[in-house]
Write a structure and sequence with these properties.
Blueprint (H helix, E strand, L loop, with lengths): L1 E5 L12 E4 L4 H11 L4 H6 L1 E5 L2 E3 L13 E5 L5
Parallel strand pairs: 1-5
Antiparallel strand pairs: 1-2, 3-4, 3-5
Length: 81
Amino acid sequence: MVEVNLWSGLRPLADGKEVVEVQADTVGALLDALVEKHPGLQEAIDAGVSVAVDGRIIASAQDEPIAPDSEVFLMQRLKGG
């Protein structure tokens, strides 16, 4: 299981949870598992999120591996100029 720390703006979409555990071994599988467990996250994920794995921001590599002991953060993508 991977522990995913949710950015504060995403917590209301996951029943107020700060940390969610899912079974996943890649970034893509992680996002799918999060939506399966908390369907309210679908719209935010579709709009764009950033995933940080062990301190590295994974922009779009769905096949990026995640170890069970990785530190993972899911954040809303920041936009602006």
